[in-house]
Design a protein that fits this description.
Helices cover 36% and strands 24% of the residues. With 414 residues, it is an alpha/beta fold. The protein is globular, with a radius of gyration of 24 Å. It binds cytidine-5'-monophosphate (C5P). The site of cytidine-5'-monophosphate (C5P) has 14 residues, from α12 and β16.
């Protein structure tokens, strides 16, 4: 997919070590046919020279707010109007703070304030600065105002520490920018997603659960927002930030997740069940902490409701998609599951293999639907999620060319 052809991208570079990656980003953007103008803060110029960016972008680099010559050529307001999207990469903690305050004390901050184009930031900083509550608050504020926050990635840092704070690689930033212009595949559609594990209480301090990290469901929620959907995420207990633009409600156990989904499924156009719902729960939850007096302990378990199958069986069921995590006979099990649960689409993946499935950043999926199948080879879950949302949008459109059961229902009762 390339939606960047002829797009006008304003790339803001602020003063961090990762500024060198901006050079590669400019080159790749131009390869994809985008027109790029670069704006650098004073601090950015200590890390990479405007001359490099000028050579790569084929345009004069903008650095000063109060430069009469530059203003005469293309003034800051003109530049703010010219662009189709602004990306600040890398965005330092200081720049994010200034952006959150709405300051206009240099050219880049002023442009961010003056433009009506979508604005994205790709933070890069020391991991302690990233986790500092001041930075977290600034980012939350920016996200609420509709600023897209892309990354950071985790890993080794230039300062010698390891953790979150690395600038996303140019390829990932290109994908995100591309996604901005590909918006609309699910414009206005209501998407309901379950994610993460459930916790089934044994007593007040213990529970049964599983290794699901929730990463796939959260990545799908983010990708659905990018595609223009209104997204509600019913999440089990996970340690993930809510993607910007997503409404999140928390569910602890399978019964509460089931109830939260039942309340919302009637208004959804698409339901995606990624949660690893516990199949069983303890029949009795002890009111006091169980003691270890006996040598053995028997727990009696009872079946939990199948949340996905229940939604798929609703009279005006939304488009339903489920996951099938398998350790053997992937294709046969997945096909059977699709039919047994009455699903429009099932995505099967191997679990148990190192680096894939539960709690991993990567995954590979085999998709099955009525009369079709497709393989999505191993890739980061964020990228897979975007591809999957594209496929869901296509199948959904094919199934409901005239609108969803919900739309038709609304028209009938109007
Ligand atoms: O039956 P199995 O657990 O393999 O099916 C997996 C699919 O069904 C996943 O999409 C999962 O989110 C969904 N599911 C559910 N409620 C359950 C069990 C599974 O929604 N109780």
């Amino acid at each position: 997919m390339n939606c960047l052809t002829s797009k006008r991208i304003l790339l803001g570079i602020t003063g961090g070590v990762a500024a060198y990656k901006a050079a590669e980003l400019v080159r790749r953007l131009r390869e994809r046919g985008a027109e790029v103008r670069v704006v650098m803060t004073q601090a950015a110029q200590a890390f990479i020279t405007p001359l490099t960016l000028q050579a790569l972008s084929g345009q004069r680099v903008h650095t000063d707010l109060l430069d009469p010559e530059a203003e005469a050529a293309m003034g800051h307001i003109e530049l703010a109007r010219w662009t189709d999207a602004v990306l600040v990469a890398p965005a330092t903690a200081d720049f994010l703070a200034r952006l959150a305050q709405g300051r206009a004390d240099d050219l880049l901050a002023t442009l961010c304030l003056a433009t009506r184009a979508p604005l994205a930031v790709a933070p890069a900083m020391n991991q302690a600065m990233w986790t500092n509550p001041a930075t977290r608050d600034n980012l939350a504020l920016l996200a609420r105002r509709g600023v897209r926050v892309w990354g950071p990635a985790e890993g080794a840092q230039a300062c010698g520490e390891t953790g979150p704070g690395r600038l996303l690689e140019p390829e990932a930033l290109l994908d995100r920018l591309d996604g901005l212009f590909a918006d609309g595949a699910l414009a206005g559609r209501r998407v309901l997603i379950t994610a993460g594990p459930t916790r089934e209480a044994i007593d007040p301090v213990r529970f049964l659960s599983n290794r699901s990290s929730g990463k796939m469901g959260y990545a799908l929620a983010a990708a659905a927002v990018e595609a223009g959907a209104l997204v509600t995420l019913v999440s089990g207990p996970v340690a993930l930030d809510c993607p910007p633009g997503v409404t999140r409600v928390w569910a602890e156990d399978a019964l509460s997740m089931h109830a939260l989904v039942q309340e919302r499924a009637g208004q959804a156009d698409i339901f995606i069940a990624t949660a690893a719902v516990a199949d069983y729960r303890p029949r009795q939850v002890a009111t006091a902490k169980l003691k270890k007096d006996a040598a053995t302990l028997n727990l009696e378990l009872e079946r939990n409701p199948d949340i996905l199958a229940a939604v798929a069986a609703m009279p005006n069921a939304p488009f339903c998609m489920g996951f099938a995590a398998e350790t053997d006979n992937l294709v046969a099990h997945a096909r059977k599951k699709r039919l047994a649960k009455g699903l429009d689409l099932v995505a099967a993946n191997w679990v148990g293999a190192p680096g894939q499935g539960f709690d991993s950043d990567d995954n590979a999926l085999e998709l099955f639907w009525e009369g079709g199948q497709e393989s999505l080879p191993e890739a980061p879950k964020t990228r897979l999620a975007r591809e999957l949302i594209g496929i869901i949008a296509r199948l959904y459109q094919e199934k409901y060319p005239q609108g969803t059961p919900q739309d038709l229902h609304a028209q009938d009762s109007a």
